[in-house]
Specification:
With about 260 residues, the chain is mostly helical. The chain is about 75% helix and about 0% strand. α1 packs across α4 and α3 packs antiparallel against α4.
Length: about 260
């Protein structure tokens, strides 16, 4: 690993290259916060793909792409006289110290759960911080991730089940309400009840220490692997999937599951 001086030198070199590109490259020179925003979102998703794949080379590459965007937004702000990358780093450092009184102060927190609870209380007290417990949850988060963050934040201020096993009664209750709306044929109400059921299941995952986003993505990837195997096998048989019976497809699907366990 690199020394502190080597890390500083590498970071400064990155900033120097960015400064040069901002002046001399026509594409870099014309970028704005608005033009970069969609690309930033894409880069973060590419980083999450690399993290899920546990591909070290790709993680390193995608972290660099995300860092580029952080540098870019800071450079644009410095050109407007608003702030620069040093302000970004200093603001972050000050926030980290303020939010870790169990390290830099006299607050006691011996578990990750205690740290999280302290964190939420501190954020409410911060100058220019979140005014309510849930106000810090970004509106544009994907709904599954947003539900999990909402539940985590509520739990950190004590709004949670006394015993995690109690959540299963809620899951059963919401399942019954979905079934009732299906029987009644009320499609508008059905959407609402499906939402309540999914919210309850996400809550259950949280209570049992499972990240619901990671869990669902692993299932997505598993389905893709098995369905791809099914497609390949159907081509070997000289058939299209539409020509195959459900029983034939199920047999190949089971074969794909067996191969995964081998």
């Amino acid at each position: 690993m690199h020394s502190d001086s080597e890390k500083s030198e590498a970071f400064l070199k990155f900033l120097e290259v960015l400064d040069t590109l901002r002046v001399k490259c026509p594409w870099d020179a014309k970028q704005t916060n608005e033009s970069l925003r969609a690309n930033t979102i894409e880069e973060v998703y590419e980083l999450t793909d690399a993290l899920l794949d546990n591909n070290v080379d790709n993680i390193k590459k995608e972290l660099g792409d995300v860092l580029l965007h952080i540098g870019f937004y800071s450079k644009i702000a410095s050109e407007k006289g608003q702030f620069d990358i040093a302000d970004v780093c200093n603001t972050l450092t000050e926030k980290l110290i303020f939010r870790h009184p169990h390290i830099y102060g006299n607050v006691k927190a011996d578990s990750p759960e205690e740290v999280s609870k302290n964190w939420e209380q501190i954020k409410l007290k911060e100058k220019n911080g979140n005014k309510t417990v849930l106000s810090g949850v970004p509106k544009s988060l994907p709904s599954l991730i947003k539900a999990n963050r909402i539940q985590e934040k509520a739990a950190n201020v004590g709004f949670d089940w006394e015993e995690r096993e109690q959540v299963w009664n809620k899951v059963k209750e919401e399942t019954a309400e979905v079934e009732e709306e299906i029987r009644s044929g009320n499609t508008d109400k059905l959407e609402e009840e499906f939402g309540d059921l999914m919210f309850a299941i996400i809550n259950a995952a949280r209570l049992y220490g499972v990240n619901p986003e990671n869990a669902l993505e692993k299932t997505n990837r598993k389905f893709i692997r098995r369905f791809s195997y099914l497609e390949a096998k159907s081509k070997e048989m000289g058939k299209s999937l539409k020509e195959m019976s459900l029983a034939e497809m199920d047999a190949i699907w089971d074969e794909a599951k067996t191969k995964e366990r081998e």
